[in-house]
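Re: that chain you flagged

S.,

Sorry for the slow reply, it's been a week of failed gels. I finally had a moment to sit down with the sequence you sent. For the record, here it is as I used it:
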Amino acid sequence: MEFMELYKKYLVKVAYLGEYFCGSQVQPEVKTIEGEIKRILKELGYKSKTEFSSRTDKGVSAIGNTFCMYS
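Prediction finished late last night. Pasting the structure tokens below so you have them in one place:
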């Protein structure tokens, strides 16, 4: 059995104002979209892996960015 077959998979659609973030992908010691989503999921008790389908640069907003969540 493959690794990902052991998990439930969810596709999550997000919208955000990028002016408050340093891009979408996790970077050390700066606020990013993926970093904030992972932090919030952890606070809510979710132990999941996330994979974004695309990325945005610092200051770029999105109304339909998606990521996969495995839990």
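What I noticed first: The CA atoms of residues 11 and 54 lie 13 Å apart.

Talk soon,
D.
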